Amino acid sequence: MRARDLLAPFPILGLDAPVADAARLLARQALPGVIVLGDDGAPFTILPGTEVLRLAVPGYCQDDPALARVVDEAHADLFLRDLDGRTVREALPHRPRELPIADPGATVLEVAALMARTRSPLVAIVEDGRLLGAVTLQALLDRMLPA
């Protein structure tokens, strides 16, 4: 089985799109992440939902989980509002990491190894510099695990 056999169209966003749009896309379509295109229109990175949360959750709560417990429920329920006015570019990790990109002829094992190595729940499939879609972890597991 090849990447082209698991390929599905996948939503994209630009670097300067509102990160709140990314969060809505993740939630409404139950996506593990979104493909972010660079200024040149080529895949730049994968933005997993956890990075969107990292931007929204106050740093002091990430550093010391006990501090999250002292925030009252009414205020704790509003933490995602901190995404307003921020961009996808701001949600990206500070250190660039390997971009999970494969060609349509990659084997399922190659795609799985890339997911594991990059810790990405999806791999962008690119041919001749053009994004064809993505292979998600769920699609890979659904097809590869016996029923």
UniProtKB/TrEMBL annotation:
On whether Transferase is a keyword of this UniProt record, the answer is yes
Query: Source organism's superkingdom?
Result: Bacteria
Q: List, in alphabetical order, the Gene Ontology terms for molecular function in this entry.
A: transferase activity
Gene3D superfamilies given for it? CBS-domain
Q: Which CDD domains match?
A: CBS_pair_bac
Q: Which UniProt keywords apply?
A: CBS domain, Transferase
UniProt cross-references to SUPFAM superfamilies, sorted A to Z = CBS-domain pair
Residue span, CBS domain: 94-147
Descriptive protein name: Signal-transduction protein with cAMP-binding, CBS, and nucleotidyltransferase domain
